[in-house]
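hey so i finally got around to running the thing on that chain from the lab meeting. sorry it took forever, my laptop kept dying and i had to restart like 3 times. anyway pasting the input first so we r on the same page abt which one it is
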Amino acid sequence: MTPAIVLIWTLGILLGLGILLFIFRIVLTWYPEVDLNRLPFNLIAWPTEPFLIPMRKLVPPIGGVDITPIIWVGIFSLLREILLGQQGLLRMIH
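ok and heres what got predicted. didnt touch it at all, straight out
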């Protein structure tokens, strides 16, 4: 395996996992009684919170709804497509 293939696989897994975690985080917002400091929910909150804190400073809740996880799903999806899609930058370089 070349380093480029390893990079493509690693980025694909990391970006896909990030998208999945943010989707779980969106679902958890529907259940305000869930304590994000307890297992298994902290496994979703811990990796996503560092992304959400600065974004919440830029984008306040709209109608009481925190839309920052939705924004991050869009950002991660866009990055994945630009870098790893069929005509992505890393695929073309490889």
